[in-house]
Amino acid sequence: MIRTQRLAATTVERVVSGASLTTVLQETWRSHSGLSDQQRGAIQDLSYGVLRFYGQLDILLGLLLNKPLKDQSLRYLLLVGLYQLQYSKTAPHVVVDSAVSASCSPSIDGRNSRNMLDPRHAKSIGGLVNAILRNFLRKRPALLEKTAATEVGRYSHPQWWIDKLRAQYPSRYQAVLETANIRPPMALRVNQRRTNVEAYQKLLHNAGLNARRPENEWTEEALELFHPVPVEKLPGFGQGLVSVQDVAAQMAAPLLCPQSGMRVLDACAAPGGKSAHLLELTDLELTAVDNDGERLERLKQNFTRLGLKPYRIIHGDATHPGEWWDGRPFDRILADAPCSASGVVRRHPDIKWLRRESDLAQFAEIQRKTLDALWQTLVKGGKLLYVTCSIFAEENGLQVESFLNHHPDARLLPFSVPEIVEGQLLPDLHHDGFFYALLEKL
User: Which positions are catalytic residues (predicted)?
Assistant: First the structure.
């Protein structure tokens, strides 16, 4: 456990300093190729957990310290220990003993460890770690109560995020914040070109996996696993029978209402989940565009696995269609625009701490440019589906309102899905948060 604690602490430290959690973990696996699957799983679980509850843990640590720590690596090791004591099933004495040993052991990330240069210093550091973690165990109820008296400590989100949600969703913001701190469900999209939901559900059952149909009628291809598993344990995954995709994200393709033979554009397509769903529904002349070359490679791999063949795959910028558009208008456009990703933070808890309130204006500007540019490529009578995985009005309802004010040839079409309120679908136990707006060109 010593190694996993220290690597998790290093991961969290790098993320809080500005790096993406996904990127840091990938680099960790490359740098420490000898890690077992169990160790990787533990490091990932600890890293996600600490970031999920970082607001609470940071305040708890502040209450336990007499003065700020100079050694930041030690600070993040203590945060990992506090997370384990509060949220894991590991015996407390094992957590504490391992954290003490980790604080006194040589660095495993290649950096010099001053603890090993001076045994007396190592002993004092180990004593400090032991005292802080055991003090938490002794005073846990009072410390948790004091931490929960602050909104950041209670909800484990930045204060600006809490304030914005309260202003925009006064009756629901607490549920949204609490939902963001639970583990996300694992939803599947069955590839109807190769099987059907009933047949695949039987395959899951035979493999010892249980799944249920979602309690809605958004999509006919969705299943939700009772317990998440690695994709390699999904029967037929490598043969393209199924994909992993959130239920709310599976709404995009049906809402766009594609018809056989239509020219369809997915303008921000990678890694290809929504594009693939469109092609699974019907035969289309689909063009997939994205400005990220690496993510486009993942899109191509997904299409190959699923046995799908799009019309064109283009490495290009959606805000500059003149660089890649052939001039033939599209019947349908899916504009899954870059956004704050505030609706998927339980899958990516680092987003809460990496985003700044000022980022919203920057995303809104990119979204505006994307909509304006793509509207030129849509045929009259065609439809454009604007999508974000955000829950902030600046990127969603306000963005669409501004677009309609500047485009008299655009009309907002209604949805028949009762859960979507003015385009917004807020996250709950079974799906992420998404925004949808279906625009028709008059």
Answer: 389 (nucleophile)
